[in-house]
Amino acid sequence: MHFIPPVEALKSQLDTLSDSAKKGFIRLSTSCQVNHLMGWLNAQSEYPRFYWQSREAGAVEYATLGAVKAFDSLAALQADLARLADLGGEQPDYFGGMAFDTSTVGWEHFPGCHFLLPRIELRRQQTGATLSLNLRFDDRCPEAEIVQARACLAALKEERPLPCLLPHVYQREDRPAQKEWAASVAQVTHPDHLSHTPKVVLSRETCLTTPETPSPWALLARWQAGAADCFHFGVQLTPHEAFIGCPPERLYTREGRHLMTEALAGTTRRGRDAQQDQALADELLADKKNSLENQCVYQQLLTQLEPLSSHVQMGEAHTVKLRSVQHIRRLIHAELHQNVTDQRLLAVLPPTPAVGGVPRESALAFIRQHERHRRGWYAGVLGRISHTSSDLSVAIRCAHIGPETIRLYAGAGIVAGSQPDEEWHELDAKIADIMSLLGMG
Fold this sequence. Notes:
By secondary structure, the protein is of the alpha+beta class. The chain has helices spanning 6-15, 37-43, 74-87, 142-155, 178-188, 191-194, 216-225, 274-286, 288-305, 342-348, 360-370, 420-430, 432-437, and strands at residues 25-32, 49-53, 61-65, 69-71, 94-98, 113-117, 120-125, 128-136, 171-175, 199-209, 232-238, 241-245, 250-255, 258-269, 309-314, 318-321, 325-336, 357-358, 381-385, 389-394, 398-402, 405-414. It has two domains: 6-155, no CATH class; 171-437, Anthranilate synthase, CATH 3.60.120.10. Strands 1, 2, 3, 7, 8, 9, 10, 11, 12, 18, 21 and 22 form a twelve-stranded antiparallel sheet that branches. Strands 4, 5, 6, 13, 14, 15, 16, 17, 19 and 20 form a ten-stranded antiparallel sheet that branches.
């Protein structure tokens, strides 16, 4: 049997697409062989580029190129989802994210909200890989759409090995410095402040400068290899900046009207061996300060979900073990009312108490007033949305990569009993993984 290369197979399907088929959304697909999706992404010349994999074992990997349509508001995204759902047929996946605080100035090339319907989609699952070309005919000239699709196919490059990550010398600056951090923690834990705002999540930006910036895709690939049980994402909207990460925390996953979210807050280190590790986990679950931090998160989630749901159920507290730290987690399941959309959920749930604080508005007011670095998409939302299902992470454990700079972010929930030095060391533990990837830890 004669083998047809995947790009040629898609071109052939496009050439033979009948006029009667040119309606609504169409996905043309062919099987393909790919060794490494990030090696494929790194070889391309098209933008934007997006990588996404959920944290479950064996989850589908997605790598996307280009954009059929892009949306800089949840309202516009939801309108497009509804429009295609009304037309029927196959429904697309949209990929993107939102900033932590859309009311403040963020990163230059990352809008407050940005989701896209990709032009090219490469998916890999356990049964194999599929290369797809996405087309829209409900709101545009069919001839122009075909021309744009052909141009994107013609620009596709063969997968290449990722460049090696060579050791670099980095200059490091923490913002805020430890002295300023201690002052902010003292303000948050003052009884007068605790009386109206029991939790504020303070963050730190660790800025690394280097004469040569490593490939974000090579960096993410190495990071991913040591970050099991985490989400994995990479976003490159322009050639100048990238945002990558391996966050452990889910915002929510939705299948139809069933939603699952979680309260992930409260942190301790990993042990030297299994016995010490379990002892630290038991101490974490019994610790009043960490239990309070987790309680602040789940109580707000329950309060937010109850008006949107016919049924909400929360599981028992347990620990999640990551490479350098372990956290307290409680799973929450909800059955959503018929009319509850992703737009409604994303207007209500983020920023979660695990990255903002409680009550939300007074915690955000403190962050806006006292944090001098820009969080941008750090602690925001990142993932995949479709009509039938959605899967979104909280964008922590991440790196913002620009020309000659890598900015790492970590946060700590400050509540009654928080000690500045302990919280500062927790931040160090949270960025230890990526620091070690850079040859600095």
